[in-house]
């Protein structure tokens, strides 16, 4: 039975639709029980995505679902890269970085026709519900499918921790630990040469990675896009005060959303006379074996996702709230915002 509510002849403007909300337990009454589910990873990969896939597959099979894996994210869905996946297919994946289903950033899902085409592909394979592991962009693709009748569940997977509905996203801990280890090494050489090391970390428009690795590595300055800074007061003055108090090397963490470490290092050197070197940590922050935190969170979120499917509670995003795993309506999740506060940055500055 097809769940798609529209076809090409009556496809409305998707931005005017809302996915059905299942906050009221009665909303699930009368829903056709699901039998076949599919899982995909989308957007930037994140350590722990494999653990999340494994969790969905094993837990889904244990619940009696037939489970399908879609390769290359929404792009693969569009092209019908869909195959059954069994419990042995996910052996030896828990500890691996990246995503063995592979991922892509897909533009095809930004048009109503693209969304309908994806929904039809799920229909062809008789898939009743889709689990999407990714960030906000991927959740928008999932939400659009939900708006035309496909039940979806989102599991937050991104190193950026920039999904407002959840306090934690899969991959965040591993990437911060990777960055921290790299910065500890940069500190050794900055100290030997009495330099300023300006390190650019990932995070897109969010500064969560920067804030925490800055605290963990004892950085003099942490620049994040959420909190405006004054270069002379917050960077130059801090470094000069440090020098006056006997410091010989400096660590400045720049979130990529603030600007280029190369430009900032040049400005620091010109303004302070302290030799400054930029380092862009780049994609190494996305690789590596997931930490315990990422493996366990991914696994618990996968169980919650399958629980939603078992109970016909669709169109949910799995979240961590006050240390507990829960789920929220996908439309509400995408309307939420979160930000780093001035106080958090100021408190980090008090450790200098
Ligand atoms: O969203 C994860 C992330 O690594 C961001 O921190 C970064 O801005 C972006 O992806 C890089 O994307 P790409 O791998 O497509 O260059």
Tell me what the structure shows.
The protein has 352 residues and is of the alpha/beta class. It folds into 2 domains: 14-170 and 290-335, Rossmann fold, CATH 3.40.50; 173-286, Phosphofructokinase domain (Rossmann fold). The protein has helices spanning 49-62, 73-79, 112-124, 136-147, 172-193, 208-216, 231-244, 261-272, 292-310, 330-335, 342-349; strands spanning 36-41, 66-70, 82-84, 129-134, 152-156, 196-201, 221-223, 250-255, 276-280, 316-321, 324-329. The strands form 2 sheets. It has a 7-stranded mixed sheet with strand order 3-2-1-4-5-10-11, with helices on both faces. A 4-stranded parallel sheet has the order 7-8-6-9, with helices on both faces. β7, α7 and β8 (250-255) form a beta-alpha-beta unit. α2 packs across α3 and α5 (172-193) packs across α6 (208-216). The radius of gyration is 22 Å and the shape is elongated. The termini are far apart. The model has no long low-confidence stretch (mean pLDDT 97). Bound molecules: 6-O-phosphono-beta-D-fructofuranose (F6P). 6-O-phosphono-beta-D-fructofuranose binds at residues 44, 105, 135, 158-160, 202-204, 256, 286. 6-O-phosphono-beta-D-fructofuranose is lined by residues 44, 105, 135, 158-160, 202-204, 256, 286.
